[in-house]
Amino acid sequence: MSDVKDHCGIFGIFNDPDAARHIYYGLHALQHRGQESSGIVTSTFDEAEQRPVMPSHRDFGLVLDVFDDPELFETKLLGDAGIGHNRYSTSGAATNRSNIQPFVVHHRKGNLALAHNGNLSNARELRKSFSERGTLFQTTSDSELILHLTAQSRRQKHIDQILDALMQVEGAFSLVMLTDDELIAVRDPNGFRPLALGRLGDPDQPGGAAYCVASETCSFDMIGADYVRDIQPGEVLVIDREGCIDGDFKSYEVPRKHGVSQCVFEYVYFSRPDSKIFGEMVDKVRRRTGVRLAHEAPVPEVDDEEKTPIVIPVPDSANTATLGYAMECQELGYRCRFEIGLIRNHYVGRTFIAPGQDKRRMKVRCKFNTVEGLLRDRTVIVVDDSIVRGTTARYLVNMLRESGAKSVHFRIASPSVVSPCFYGMDFPDRDELLANQFDSVDDIRDWLGVDSLAYLSVDGLMQAVREANPSDLGYCNACFTANYPVPVDMDMTKEEYEW
């Protein structure tokens, strides 16, 4: 399992009289993408002041905790349009309240709110330029830079100001932006982070349908919306009232400097298996990674008199890859069966939150337990989605052996992680990655304490993705290959990127 912090989850909706509640449910479905803070901004008209306003509510914590007062939806978060954000910080201090999104500003063209999923690779350069001109910052988040670029644009039309800003930023950015009259969905030209368009209701009904955009389609399922399509890499889609009636929205394109490079780790770990990402179901792709892994590193053969080897997942992100692996091994003639040998406690936070190794070990104990009667005297093949630092995996191996496993074999449904990410995933620094601390897979095997260890190859991963999703769009696998599709300064640490 991955010692990696998820990036963020974003959701926006337009032309929906129950906008705030639907954003709330959408964010709840996207909770796995960020658990530090949550926020909602809506757009409405203040009759007393006779002007459009954008009320907001933001705080640290999970969606259910931040929005635990029903009165928020009755008296504050009014209007039929809004955006929401779940945050797991990559840039900007996690404890700084001003960093909680969505951000809202007021400038000469009216109100503007923004929620951002991703990371800008040229953030330091832009921030330095702004600082030299005397610009004051309210946050330490790279997302604020997009607002400053928009506000300081000399273009006259609001959409032209936004386009002007987008052409000056680089890296990963899926955005939902809210103006007084429109919802704007943006995906960077590389298409690093996912963003999908959905429709709620009948376009032929009076006033038209409601349209929504989200990081993952599982949030559409939560509110009963239909998936329409993905926002394309480099697309800026403007959702307005006229388009909600006729379904014809204005679409602009941000020029592409590099090729399309969608984040393959979305398929490996981040996204929910019931989501459609980059045009295909995550479950389907993960099953294919398990199938490819079965061909590259099948279960070990055992004597006929021994108990049948069992294949178990590290729940929950490895469940579907494990199913693909076990079924394909059986098809290939290997004796094995799928079992649930590790039980996860879903009411415990993620392991990397606890500082210090003793606390981490206790957190693993609190999060996982073994089914001892199933494991005893058996050959156990553990399938995980990835290994980053490896500390949690090492503790799990000890737990399996203490439960009586005859032998423990690890199979990883992705390649070894060798490089940090500068496009919105919070991987550890290069030196902290397990693959960079040892000279060979055998050395890692010995450190983990397993009888055998095998990773899915890079070619195997990409083949599995292509088999499941034959789209001709490209993917970023820099965390596995160190081949960065958008230039980054490799002499800088991740912390230096995250001022």
Explain what the structure shows.
The chain is α+β, with helices and mostly antiparallel strands. The chain folds into two domains: 9-260, 4-Layer Sandwich (Glutamine Phosphoribosylpyrophosphate, subunit 1, domain 1); 280-473, Rossmann fold. It is built from 18 helices and 25 strands. Strands 1, 2, 3, 4, 5, 10, 11 and 12 form an eight-stranded antiparallel β-sheet that branches. The chain is elongated. Mean pLDDT is 90; it is low at 350-355 and 494-499.
Q: What are the key terms here?
A:
499 residues; 25 strands; Glutamine Phosphoribosylpyrophosphate, subunit 1, domain 1; Rossmann fold; alpha+beta; eight-stranded antiparallel beta sheet; 2 domains; single chain; six-stranded antiparallel beta sheet; 24% strand
Topology:
Elements: E1 9-14, H1 19-29, E2 37-46, E3 51-53, E4 56-60, H2 63-66, H3 71-76, E5 81-87, E6 103-107, E7 110-120, H4 123-132, H5 143-151, H6 158-166, E8 171-179, E9 183-187, E10 196-200, E11 210-214, H7 218-223, E12 226-230, E13 235-239, H8 241-246, E14 250-253, E15 262-263, H9 265-270, E16 276-277, E17 280-281, H10 282-296, E18 310-313, H11 319-331, E19 337-338, E20 342-344, H12 357-367, E21 368-370, H13 372-375, E22 379-384, H14 391-402, E23 407-412, H15 441-448, E24 452-455, H16 458-468, E25 475-476, H17 478-481, H18 494-497
Parallel strand pairs: 15-25, 18-19, 18-22, 22-23, 23-24
Antiparallel strand pairs: 1-5, 1-11, 2-3, 2-4, 2-5, 6-7, 7-8, 8-9, 9-13, 10-11, 10-12, 13-14, 16-17, 20-21
Helix pairs in contact: 5-6, 10-11, 10-16, 12-14
